[in-house]
Amino acid sequence: MADNWLREPNWSWNDSLEPSGYVHDWVQRINEVESVPECILYGAPLSKSSISVSGASLYPEVFRRLWKQFAAYNFEEEIDLTSYSVADAGDILMHTTDVAESHRRIEIAAYALNQTFPKSTLCMIGGDHSTTACAIRGLKRSQPNQTIGILQLDTHLDVRDPAEYGPANGTPIRQLIEGGVVRGEHIVNIGLHGYYNTKQLVEYAKRHQIKTYSMKETRKIGVSRLIEQELKRLSSETDLVYVTVDMDVLDISFAPGVPAATPGGMRTEELFEGLLSIGKSPAVKHIDFVCLDPSRDSRIEETCRIGVHAWLQFMTGRIMNKG
Amino acid sequence: MADNWLREPNWSWNDSLEPSGYVHDWVQRINEVESVPECILYGAPLSKSSISVSGASLYPEVFRRLWKQFAAYNFEEEIDLTSYSVADAGDILMHTTDVAESHRRIEIAAYALNQTFPKSTLCMIGGDHSTTACAIRGLKRSQPNQTIGILQLDTHLDVRDPAEYGPANGTPIRQLIEGGVVRGEHIVNIGLHGYYNTKQLVEYAKRHQIKTYSMKETRKIGVSRLIEQELKRLSSETDLVYVTVDMDVLDISFAPGVPAATPGGMRTEELFEGLLSIGKSPAVKHIDFVCLDPSRDSRIEETCRIGVHAWLQFMTGRIMNKG
Amino acid sequence: MADNWLREPNWSWNDSLEPSGYVHDWVQRINEVESVPECILYGAPLSKSSISVSGASLYPEVFRRLWKQFAAYNFEEEIDLTSYSVADAGDILMHTTDVAESHRRIEIAAYALNQTFPKSTLCMIGGDHSTTACAIRGLKRSQPNQTIGILQLDTHLDVRDPAEYGPANGTPIRQLIEGGVVRGEHIVNIGLHGYYNTKQLVEYAKRHQIKTYSMKETRKIGVSRLIEQELKRLSSETDLVYVTVDMDVLDISFAPGVPAATPGGMRTEELFEGLLSIGKSPAVKHIDFVCLDPSRDSRIEETCRIGVHAWLQFMTGRIMNKG
Amino acid sequence: MADNWLREPNWSWNDSLEPSGYVHDWVQRINEVESVPECILYGAPLSKSSISVSGASLYPEVFRRLWKQFAAYNFEEEIDLTSYSVADAGDILMHTTDVAESHRRIEIAAYALNQTFPKSTLCMIGGDHSTTACAIRGLKRSQPNQTIGILQLDTHLDVRDPAEYGPANGTPIRQLIEGGVVRGEHIVNIGLHGYYNTKQLVEYAKRHQIKTYSMKETRKIGVSRLIEQELKRLSSETDLVYVTVDMDVLDISFAPGVPAATPGGMRTEELFEGLLSIGKSPAVKHIDFVCLDPSRDSRIEETCRIGVHAWLQFMTGRIMNKG
Amino acid sequence: MADNWLREPNWSWNDSLEPSGYVHDWVQRINEVESVPECILYGAPLSKSSISVSGASLYPEVFRRLWKQFAAYNFEEEIDLTSYSVADAGDILMHTTDVAESHRRIEIAAYALNQTFPKSTLCMIGGDHSTTACAIRGLKRSQPNQTIGILQLDTHLDVRDPAEYGPANGTPIRQLIEGGVVRGEHIVNIGLHGYYNTKQLVEYAKRHQIKTYSMKETRKIGVSRLIEQELKRLSSETDLVYVTVDMDVLDISFAPGVPAATPGGMRTEELFEGLLSIGKSPAVKHIDFVCLDPSRDSRIEETCRIGVHAWLQFMTGRIMNKG
Amino acid sequence: MADNWLREPNWSWNDSLEPSGYVHDWVQRINEVESVPECILYGAPLSKSSISVSGASLYPEVFRRLWKQFAAYNFEEEIDLTSYSVADAGDILMHTTDVAESHRRIEIAAYALNQTFPKSTLCMIGGDHSTTACAIRGLKRSQPNQTIGILQLDTHLDVRDPAEYGPANGTPIRQLIEGGVVRGEHIVNIGLHGYYNTKQLVEYAKRHQIKTYSMKETRKIGVSRLIEQELKRLSSETDLVYVTVDMDVLDISFAPGVPAATPGGMRTEELFEGLLSIGKSPAVKHIDFVCLDPSRDSRIEETCRIGVHAWLQFMTGRIMNKG
Question: Which residues bind Mn(2+) (chains A, B, C, D, E, F) (predicted)?
């Protein structure tokens, strides 16, 4: 008699009684997919590599909890997301105290996913920015003959010296350059601004020909237009582009929940437009979203919601590219 | 001797010792007005009809407390608000557990106020968005021969199925269409964006010819210009326009204090400009402001302050229309 | 190769990689149990019946999320909880706007669970205090010949007049008395204190011979000793005792996350001891925990953690009773 | 038709539709009383005299807002508060920038109230602790021949040097001693503890024979018993006792909303018992409650609620003394 | 052996082990400079003069703590700040209870610093806005023959009547006009908007020919362009311009940590551009930043970070002017 | 002229203008002491070894900032702390990403400090609980012939398996037992309670004869009395006792700012009494305080204040032992 009302406990991945049409109805578990998914999500819940205290390791779980509140339909572009196949490979298990081991596992996971699903777009949910170096190394190992370009949206250059910090979240770009994985001139960083990079680091970037655009320049050109222009250039010089979105590129008034929030940053509107362009680009192969720290977020989980929205913009772009 | 310093306790409506010139000096209690007021405020403190947990029932009281901090003078337009007469009719008493009864009372209140003060602009302070359907039904019953148009500023379509939810805050537009109160083609919704309406609901809206503008389109045209254009159109097709402002139309970074805050929404600056245009329009007869939840607001009561400011913009527009 | 590290996404009820021994390893889904469980949990996520704004409907979900952080072992009593069988029947689906219908479903659920599992202890996770009246009515309907006694831990009498409020959270005890379900002299309320019940309500309680103990008297006797004494008395006068724990019985400094938190209340230590005594008593058949509101809790979810701990104390008592 | 539901806006002192029996129904405005009230409340909203930043000036307003949630009935003592007459004289208007002038007004207000209502108990709602010196000076000026004793509940001695700070919140006791208003040996301070008074200040207190009891000694004797014993002694040596309750005497876990919250302090339960004893004592003539800062309180207004409860305990004691 | 790791406790001004290049490495203590510094910082930690409760007195200390997280390099303009010499003169000691004395000390400090370092730009870190009147009076006394112009960025006119409030934070501009220190027509106020100045105050400003620009007008022209235009005009009519930045000019969504935060204000991006223009102008001699209240800021210290960034923009402008 | 008021910026360790008598006036920098200090403080700012996200690395800095608000005088015991000499050796520099290296440095630091100052009590300020194993190993290496006993105040056994977690904060006791540094029977753990240790870990503790006392047993005996009894026993079986205070032993209502806060824990009053007993005991040689996480603390820094108070209780005990 009470059958319709006694809901099962909230244990299951697609547990909602909402009418269908939400993100959790659409994304599949990787062990349940029947064909090769166009996009594979995987979490890298590591933030012990962060220079300052960070709870970014908590983000992958929050990301999946919040997506239940997002419809699988983009109103502005009139895009039905369910026409694109996405599988969730789950989180990489991190070691509690051995950061190098955790980094190694991320690298191997990226390698293995790319080996198994060479055609799929890999989308890593961080974690702090050190994870990006691991993912790119794994992809490079999987496809050693391919030249990788990087499009980075960030407030920071992330070229601190690993000799001093170890493989910390301030060092991934330098790790990749010095490890011979990516060449400086194949790296574009958009969103730098203000007083958040020392002169010494700026000089390093110049020396290695990293292409940088300040927020001021970026706004003059337009975020999307600049991204399109740079992706075009990178696609002519490299075999594939990896995009890394450090959410601290956003202004502190939009994104309080990142460990290094600063004033003077990007607006969400600009980021969302940029991610459409990124998704649309055939040159872009893989992406990550890093440095969202739920423990620093406001009570309404503002920054983490932006994180889900941002990822959906990339998905929308992918479909527009297909169509 | 101590007469000047011993202030009476803070029990009274116009209790401030501030120099005059503030909103609470200007708005009158409805039982004290001597002529028909140009605008009548009334509160509908109901949010039990909300799909998610909502404290929007607390807003009318906070609205009246905060207005003591607002001058009755618009600096930008050089408008003295006191040249316009506003009366506060107080709050409708809600039933503690019977939502249908509460809805009935709102409907009767709107009916009764319109019957008694047919020339006055009614301004309802919600409460959640279910209250809008009640208010419009009451007005329709009062003036059955008048065709009503709706201008809605909202992140959501609010066309969920009442058969499934009852008369909840996700359903008012569908209630009005299916109840024959307002026709779909007389409804304009501005501010929709992102991933907050399922495909199924978008299709319902299309089927019923609700006119929708995404934030992206809206920004291309300009919020005020679009509102003016649509009000013009509506005024040629209907007898009067009812405006409903769901404050969740605002971006989450401006308005955390709404139950369904999302990224990608309207900026306050845009909303404020739009409300000037709305106030100026002779076609607009009544208005409501819904879904502000003081219990979700930040410690500085940011969203509720925006709510007062928004209402004052509408008032400023009214005067500009008169003058 | 990466098999051990690529964890599946966090979708599953027993999804932890923690070494076994935690609560979520122990509690089973009701459709997976192989024999009649000794205790059945079910959630009643309703708080629209609350006089003040309440998010207590959110508690059942938070309760199940937090229990992953609790070991299934009581250190102080050296009790292994896994020797007791508990099944989770999930949540009752509430109607969005029809409170009476939601109440009816709770009543039917309690009836149906008791019909199906007449030997099991039912443990309802609220929801606000109005749900208690429903559960007890359901049990009474299931076993109409049994006389029910109530042991209530509460700051309030909950005897407001349903004629005025409807079946709100301030009325359950009066509903049960006036509905002839439970007699006033079979009700014991422990924890009343301070200035949180009007004279008129106290007089109602006296008139109906509800037995009340103020916190002051309770402390003089000792919470556990008083509970044991009163359960003994009730067991001699009734067939079974239903215990209802309104978490607002706790002092505001311990339990901020209840809608009506007050100073002068019970300490957690006292509540926990009392729940051991309650669990141990053969007279006690069913229990509920109500009025925990996660949206009012502190950032560290203090009150909800106390809620899980409190329930585990009752479980510990059950086992001590068995053993 | 809608008459019963259209409530007037919330402008009025007795604006609640709650069934009667709450504090705001009982306390009268001073200009409406018909006979001499037994107790007169007045607010001293000054905290610019505080050494650290303080918003204690906001407390009188919050105090009157929160009392609407308190019944005028003490459950534990079965006391109906309405048998005692209380009038609210409102707040003393403070000067915005001239602290000395504000202090002068408080002194004159206390003088004037005592001249007009010599039999009434004056109850001052602070404000910071500097206001106590003013109130006592005003009373002394009104009754110059009466010897005043002080019972102080406080974490601090408040004997810093006014020559260094001016008449700040750390100095009131020293002001009164050095101004010849009260003698050191007629001052008792209960609740001192930990590391919150320098050796130099302790030595000053000893030199002036202020009687001090640490929390540790106090607990050994029992708060109420110690208070009763000391009030007895003071009543034999002075004509009247003024009680000053600095709410920072409470432990930081109970009372976060005071500018100088410390661990190791009094529990609310102890304070509440002590205030019953104080209220019951015929020796006690006047009282104040100071240093509650709503802007530092938790979101649930925990400390301010304790403030209302504490005052009601004093009221309860007054009635027990009468009866 | 452990020498390299055992860091000294964090007691020292340049205590960081970060690689050099941060603000605290660059700013010198005034008693350690070897030549006349181009800019001198001094703190005026006074906010007892504020009409509403304010903790702006806490800002100078937070300002110096946060600057350790800012690089001494402006990325957008490619400016190395260390090419400009800045000395920190510390904070002016405020009197605890005598606001007039505190004001006198600020005035004398500004006088003395200008007498000792007549060529240096003085940069005052408030405190509330009353401190501006003191600083300008001190400078005028030091250089009585120089005509001073004021460029004010503010949401308020600050022309309330000192006869009513004393020298409060709402009065500094009126103090200066009525004290004959600055003439009304030499004052420009940019950023006024909304409903935050009464008609009466606007009329005062008009009567004294204060030049005002609403946010709406300002945006039409462009913040930087308007500032440049007005500085040009002021430089032709006065000998030097004093800039006062009341941080409440910013929109509440950017700057919650000011006592009078309002919607409709300036964006940080606009303020930052404006401060570049201000820094670049040779007409500008001195500056202050007032009304940042760390106790009202969000947990991530958003507003105070904006305060440091804003000051660095002015510094960047200074260097661009030199170069 | 302005000399007295222009305070130097707040850069210095003893920078306060407060009258002397506070903690920061008393504690000396280690490179400034003239004789061997009786106690040496050192910070171990490491929390990357924590199983859950922890910001305990931030505590040493907050500890030193807050002590400026504590007088160097214990009111209850009438003890002047300045009669005891304390030096601050600063913080050990942690590696950003290499936890093992950070652990090695802590071990060496403890070794080196003990070698240099063999008579001094070492007081380590953590950091998470993994640091305790390092400190004790360092001391053991310094004095290999001494048998060490451990008195642990904790909610957890901390005997998880390092083979699984590495040297994490859940493992230090097991590390020490399995490393042969301390024998199980020389370890006493007081404060265990509730559901925070799995059966498996309890069995490990029993197997290794760790002596454990639940909060319930502890309260029956009395915290201080139990501590005295166990220290007496340990002193007869070992050469010296190391005390480790995991602040999560406190109840969640007192100490929200610890990563694993639980209900059912110790009261501050009990901890403070216990630390007096610990300080008084000649058997106790060294101590640490771990697991205070400022980033989880409430806005008023409640838990960190308790941390300073707790340390001062130990200091008071030391002096009582001497005297």
Answer: 129, 154, 156, 158, 246, 248
